[in-house]
Fold each of these.
Amino acid sequence: MMHFDAIAESLKQDKPGFTLPQKLYVSEEAYKFDTEVMLKSVWLYACTIAHVKNPGDRFLFELGDTSVIVTRTKDGEIKAFHNSCTHRGAKLCDGAGKSARLVCPYHQWTFSLDGKLLAARNMPEEFDKAEFGLRPVALENIGGLIFLCLADNPPPIDRVKADIEEQIAIYDMTKLKVAVQDDLIEPANWKLVMENNRECYHCDASHPELLKSLSTYGFGKGLPEDGEGDVVDDAAFDAMLEAQRQRWEDLGFYHDIVEFPDNWWHRVARLPLANGAVSQTLDGKPASQKPIWPHGLNETTSLSVWTQPNSWHHFCCDHVVTFSLTPLGPEKTLLRTTWLVHEDAVEGVDYDPANLAAVWRATNAQDSHLSAVNHAGIKGDGYRPGMYSVEEKLVDAFKAFYVERSRAALGV
Ligand code: 3BY
Ligand code: FES
Ligand code: FE
């Protein structure tokens, strides 16, 4: 392993409450460190069970030079394998797809979807196929969200699993299908794309479409009626939650907000939508006419899940929108956004894909611009770490997670 001395030095310089030292955002070495060490030491969100809905389906998740195939086996199980043939190492698949077996394009070694080597021509007598199955990758299915870990000894995920699973179970993800998927390449470091997601300090000035339904409650901001003051009013937010509590309890889905407990990496929160909206759409109306939970299409709240270090998810009464992020270069990030609807919803009848995707497609483009502007300003000589506002406490939580896990991975 490379030594990453400059990274270790920058990590030591980091100050709580402040943005990272420059090198960690912009250098080639930080990109190498992130993709080869830091991001391999944690669980990463890859996709949903709907991305591999039927036996034979496969999906690729790629981090740096490592490619992972997520498959649905003929028994309906979900598995993950390194996308590298056990013969001479060729990349087995170059994209998502569907097939009964995985056949290597080089010499046609053939694998089952649960990773067993089924056929290999002209191998010596002593060759034992059982020893040449695909190399598995650790996988957790958390209520339909698939997480992968590339470490030899993955860190515990039990508490993340328990908290998320319990709350999203009401939206039965086994009954959903992928309706739309956008891959957006952002010209910014992945950590800036993540930081941007963890605050709504920028929302008022940049997100007209999102703010039609997303309320800035819960992002460290008081209620709008609090007036013009700049100061956070947690009391007003708490009072709003208390007011909703009885109704949510009656419906059986009340849960206290889970917010990165003891440095775990998840936040799960049911939050009210703005302006009486029932879905994250331009007009606040459902984008799909088939509800995805048992309480119809009139619910004016949504359930959101944020995980460190690379995902966020919003569950509305009619659809789920889910985001997975991976670095492609020091200044290049893939943001994959997927919109899921009920499997019985018919395109063009129950939903219009363009309408379903409209809010977050516009929001992602705006955020991409902001992250690019952020990266551009950090690159130059004038940058010094800046202080986060009180509305950016979740940005600080992301950054603290990054620093802590990076230090642990490097042993510094
Ligand atoms: O909704 C989100 O995922 C993020 C968090 C705060 C604002 N925002 C666009
Ligand atoms: Fe895959 Fe030879 S490298 S069959
Ligand atoms: Fe934004």
Note: The longest strand covers residues 176-186.
Amino acid sequence: MSLLITDIAELSTCDPAHGEGPTGVLTDAALVVENGEVAWIGPAAQAPDADERLSAEGGAVLPGFVDSHAHLVFAGDRAGEFAARMAGQPYAAGGIRTTVAATRAASDEQLRANAARHVEEALRQGTTTIEIKGGYGLTVADEARSLRLAREFTAETTYLGAHVVPAGTDADAYVALAAGEMLDAAAPYAKWADVFCERGAFDGDQAREILTAAAKRGLGLRVHANQLTEGPGVRLAVELGAASADHCTFLSDADVDALASSSTVATLLPGVEFSTRQPYPDARRLIDAGVNVAIASDCNPGSCYTSSMPLMIALAVREMRMTVPEAILAATAGGAKALRRTDIGRLVPGARADLVVLDAPSALHLAYRPGVPLVRSVLRAGARVA
Ligand code: NIG
Ligand code: FE
């Protein structure tokens, strides 16, 4: 079964080899889907015939967003903590323990329904691939359960047993658990392992121990690094060949150099700075140094409770001074790179037909019209999902 998408005012392939400019734009374009993949892209006037047709009605089409960083297995919310922060309290990692208590107390059905609600919410805003972390269980059974549930929604699951040390627990004993029995219980459901490497969470040596143990079990690595302070996280991520170092808010020159000479993607999470009133990461410094940059939502009930990738694009442009094409690439091809995926994040022949049709003539409108629901429809593997 083939599908021809017509009346595309602007097609952002997100591959500069396939069109104009950094986002590889084709105008007055068409796209053919076959067997869930992009089979053909080109000028509408030359489009081949297909079994079915879908009109983009003069809207822009771009790849579905790849949200490479989200925490969606949790219960409850922390609206009170947010309100207190807006009244002057600082953000602190300790709030994580509030969500841990609520998550442990929730049933599988409650956690599943909550995750489903957020995945659906993200999908309606154009996110066709989402990474989901655990990290709100912090016991062997609860981290295994979190990852087992996450697996129901995505292949991109991440073990984050080392999110914080649970209240009343000895840190050394907890690190040994997170690098041993807890990791063993969660690993069958996890593709990745992550550690919150930060003052108040895990230091560089503790993070190295856990990440090294995870790599030995075949998991890919990612690191919550340099979010609240400068520290060893980014350089550790590069040293261990992690796919991404996430946050990257407080960076030394050595951190930037390390990222620039590596394949580790710097995943920027501007919704966190928006929601915590922290300074934004210096995206220009990273891009100008040649670092691979992604943007992601970090959707979680503490530091950033939004799943909106269009909002992340708007923030990246307006607050981090990324150009609009840079932000669109970071939310699509950049996210795919952060997940080491080559089948998503671009609309070129052979790629999975994950795409967004906008109620706007150009993808520029994602940054130009912040807060406006511009996503008209979403296709995953060529099938309409929103
Ligand atoms: O990525 N930094 C650590 N973890 C999350 C926040 C989790 C929370 O506050 O509940 C983050 O910002
Ligand atoms: Fe996070």
Note: The chain has a mean pLDDT of 98.
Amino acid sequence: MNVLKNGFLVLPEGVFCGDLVLDGTKIIQVGGTYEARIDDNVIDVTGKYVFPGFIDAHTHMQCWTGMDWTADSFETGTRAAACGGTTTIVDYATQDKGMTLPEALDEWHKRADGTCTANYAFHMAIADWNEQTKADMQAMRDAGVMSFKTYFAYDHLRLDDAQTLEVLEYIRDIDGVLCVHCENGTLVNELQRRMLAAGITGPEGHPMSRPAACEAEAISRLCYLAELADARINIVHLSSALGLEAVRAAKARGKVKMDVETCPQYLLLDDSRYLESDFEGAKYVMSPPLRKPHDIEVLRRAVCDGEIDTIATDHCSFNLHGQKDRGIDDFTHIPNGGPGVEHRPGLIMTSFENRLGVQDFARLMSEGPARVFGMYPRKGVLRVGSDADVTVWDPSVTWTISEKNQHQNVDYTPYEGFEVHGRPAYVFVNGELAVVDGEPTGVKPGAYVKR
Ligand code: URP
Ligand code: ZN
Ligand code: ZN
């Protein structure tokens, strides 16, 4: 047994001092005092917080995104995730045009199986909505995929409104959830054309061509479609105050079943970053783009007021040198996305330390994603019988994020120089000790999570 002695156990009912006992891949005791035996592995975690392992429900590992391959593989990405305290990712398996959904799922299993330090589940992104795809939806559900994604932007991926409505109806029938990339792609294309015509070719053209109105309009449209179909939706990577207004309007109508995700970049970084010299602004080219300080303030308040259900990263890493710099003469050729899977727990716990408590962190980064994406209570809670995914957080350590000390396989971090309060002292994945003091032990206990 692994015995974590005398920690602050972060439970939905409160924070209690006691022992947590892991037997193989499961939790067998939560709280109280455990009488250790000679062959037990006892770790004193006095003064440390014991969280259910954090879950990042939005990543893109080892993925072709239309312009390039992401820099992190499942191997490097899940190792980095675990080093930061994340024990499960939910990655976007993506159907290319001409591919069936089972083919796409097989392909993602080939990329991930046997290589992962953290657990992994898959959403399925649908790019080719045809008769075969419709016929394969139930097979996805049977294979453990209960969440799907469609896009309103990106020409190689996006579906039109009629197709989106039909996807929603299928998803309702299999009791799934549809995650949607909410940006109006037609508008984005037109605004990009206007920027380039006006001679704006640098990274600053990226946010100018994707204003918050593009997000808000798409969110509003999606909510009406979901109401028509009576299907559950997930608004991913919410980035703007205007987008939040669209969410609130839909919630006020009271008809839509909806959860809302945002990401650290939209809670911490503003659009002045696009003006960094020497093309460094390209580091922040992700969609939706970074917004104004006012948006950050509004979204942070929404997190504190319980309007946001989950915080994920949208980890989609590209190197600045050799990948993003292909767009040096035209910002529309900069691969979209940024890294974050390693740093989310530290960033969120530090930047909200005076506004949220440890139970809130567990809710937003573990319990919430487990509930929304069909993993609760197997994951997302410290409970007898739940999986032995545990993050022991040492609040006494202060350290600084840098490209030099990260495990993400990418040549920068958007959070360079950010001072973090706290670090994972121990991370267990399926009962195996995967990380000590923020460094990997070298094991790869990550398993596929059938949901
Ligand atoms: O820029 C981003 N976010 N790239 C990843 C794909 C997506 O839109 O989620
Ligand atoms: Zn997206
Ligand atoms: Zn994404």
Note: The longest strand covers residues 390-400.
Amino acid sequence: MAYDFGSIEPKWQRAWEDSGAFHVETGGEKPKFYCLEMFPYPSGALHMGHLRNYSIGDLMARFLRMRGYNVLYPIGFDAFGLPAENAALKFGVQPADWTWKNIEHMTSQLKRMGCSYDWRRRVETCNPNYYRWTQWLFLQFFKKGLAYRKEAPVNWCESCKTVLANEQVVDGGHCWRCGTAVTKRNLEQWFLRITDYAQELLDCLDSLVGWPERVRMMQRNWIGRSEGVRLSFSVEGTDLEIEAFTTRIDTIYGVTFVALAAENPLVRRLAALSPKGQEILDFASKVMRQSEIERSSLGAEKEGLDTGFFAVNPVDGRRIPIWIANYILMDYGTGAIMGVPAHDQRDFEFARKYCLKVIPVIRPADGEIPNGDSMEAAFEDDGIQCNSGEFDGLPTREAISRMAQWFEDKGWGRREVNYRLRDWLISRQRYWGAPIPVVYCDRCGIVPVPEEELPVTLPMDVTVLEGGGSPLPEAANWVNTKCPACGGPARRETDTMDTFICSSWYFLRYTSPCSSDAPFKMEDVSYWMPVDQYIGGIEHACLHLIYARFFTKVCSDLGLLPPDCREPFTNLLTQGMVIKDGSKMSKSKGNVVDPDEIISRYGADTARLFILFAAPPEKDLDWSDKGVEGAHRFLGRVFRLVEDNLDALRSAPKPMEIGSIEDKALRDLKRLIHRTVDKVTRDIEEEKQFNTAVASLMELSNALGALKSRTPEAMSVLREGVETLLLCLAPFTPHVCEELWEMMGNQGMISLASWPKPDLECLKLEDVTVVFQINGKVREELTVQAGLSKEELQKVVMEDPRVIKRLEGKDVVKVIAVPDKLVNVVVKP
Ligand code: ANZ
Ligand code: ZN
């Protein structure tokens, strides 16, 4: 019989499923462990990135289960989103049908991988029994004032025909999905007030020590806290005031212009008062048509227009021109700045282009005051204050705090904290998403759909429009409804929610997947939350991983989660990419390896083993056909090791105490077995270095295969070794381990067996005999533990009573220790 994975794997998959081996319940004696992978989008089929993600997750789930934890390990589908609409257009199918077909196919693929999910808990975000609660959560946000509607300049992708959240605008202004340059539009949109949580989202990052520092840093930058001063300039000859936000109030004496964003409402007011009003308005609308990259990326062409108005610098009464500038953005700070060309590079470029004055007010700590006319770049570093009246001579940091205080005392401004984080724009003009559960009534305005009427289900009999527009506004039967408040005619909201909302709470639903009177039960979430180990891609660092943290905090404040449950994911592992021939596997590169094909050809165990062995989980994994074959051959050898020795193994005596084994080689083998358990345990649990764990298991397997002796003593050690090997391999390659475990006559599944514990006696090294010499002459032979360092050996030997006796009355000049060999003492003659 050869290693026939083709029959072994389905056999055990069925056995696990039939016995409910991986079903878990809330509560019990064991400690809990919640192991979670980022759930997949049902795009059609699994790719290698999925396979890697789930191989890592399943390894950890199986390992912790064997370690005695009650392990929640669920899976589901992030099933709303644009690709379903595109497929609908392309193939003339319903988005729902396409999605559900993919879900079923990918489920069968996941089962073929042998992942130990509790399948009863599968959730699909497009299922009305799920999105009913997404809508319910939206209403709770709405009631708390955390969901609101406002007109705002929003990111618009012309190609996807939809609005994008800031987080979905990537690479300096492109759509995260299709790469088109994003433009701005003014639209009424729904927002979630994530900025209310900006400070807490930032503060809690420090406590997330189980996260990669890189991700925490990305979130810190994304939240972008800035401390500064909001100050106002009066506009000469009017009663208007311009508010500006600056982080560098220390540069106030160097302000040579004020600049407004094109969208700043003051632009219209100034235009109305100006003889060149039309020119101002035209320039502003030209800027508004530029994309954010054209306006604000480094090196982008700075463009401006002098309004002809002057502002007054409050500190010295100086008149400074007011400009409109394309690099000032409306959605940061106040949408206006004080321009300090000497100390801000963008202002510097702007000033040089339009011949504005450059006045240095900071000099390098060890240098001269720069010359404003000949400077070639702004001096942005800290330094010493100059040209700044009574503040001259102060170092920058001190000047900032003293001048901020001065502004507050004078009533010219106040300290302010600004965040780069914006409120989360969640409405999408798309069909395949969770409908936002509100209606519009002419009499009552915005009316939330009563909770008992949820879900607001998507109409199924629609045709996705050519060009990608949503069919919802056209679905008259669906749109026209009754106002829940007054009973009069009303229209449904036709925007759907950003799918990132659906994925912001799915990990909570897994704990109570069947709950029908709440999104999840307090009893379940208090037991299972937080997720102990989360595994997924780094690309979600500023999207999903911030949104999920925000939802967790709001749910906790709403009383849906325990008050101390403020963070969803205790440990985060961001897996590397799968690459082939040096680049990321992708259809466009034509270097895709299909998981299905690998599994058919070599089996799931081989695929999993290769993936876990080829690289540490956080590093990129270089796909290698040779490596896959190597992994496959290794499993073949393990299989034969058991098969060839089956009778002897079955009748082998129980494990023996190391002290009672006669043969030194067998004692060494027994030590190797226990050292391997010890190392593999630490590699998985502490280091997350699964590749080195596999390497140790390969070493052990080789040593067991090389054993020639067939004495009862040898067979006892061999059996112990093989069982240990199988137990340690089981989380990596569960099917073949189940099979061999059963062949050896063990009761019960290996998946549910206990993880082996190393015998501490076996972790100690053998004893060795060392000699004790005085002036080079052997005086004693002593037995000590092998492997002691020089210092340790010297200490042990010098404390031996016989040695102490030998040295009585002698004058020791020097001690020389050679590990495992000797200690020589030089004494005065
Ligand atoms: C004067 C100044 C002098 C500035 C100087 C910087 C250096 P962070 O750190 O990111 O918060 N700014 C403010 N609002 C802006 C907007 N809507 N569009 C473009 N730029 C804006 O950046 C704060 C600084 O960015 C502010 O401090 C302001 O320029 C600019 F030597 O004010 B500063
Ligand atoms: Zn009404």
Note: The mean pLDDT is 94.
